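Morning run. Coffee first, then this:
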Amino acid sequence: MDQPAVYREQRRSYRVDTSGTEAVCDMSVGRDYVAQRYDVDNLSSGGALLSSGRLVPIGQAMRVILMPPGSTFIEANARVVRHHAEDALAIAFDELTADADDAIQGIVADTILRYWRPR
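And here it is:
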């Protein structure tokens, strides 16, 4: 079984690859109201990398509904912090609720534990 990537780098929290997780983002872009579906490439309690959707401006605020497989939906407010490649954007969550933070931390921990092997 392939192991998912687990990243720490200089971030405050771990992020993990999240294949199969999708997100729907609601936002106002200019005078248009947009609801866009994205694939969630990786996830942490600080934010996510979204791909396969419309690139929106850096700084754009949005409401995000994360839809991990086999789990309940997770809602959060976020903003775009950078573009990654030609079809992906990095978002940072704004003040997660305790329930949303717990749900995301649970996904991260479950993913790490599923593939962690003691040496």
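The radius of gyration is 14 Å. Good start to the day.
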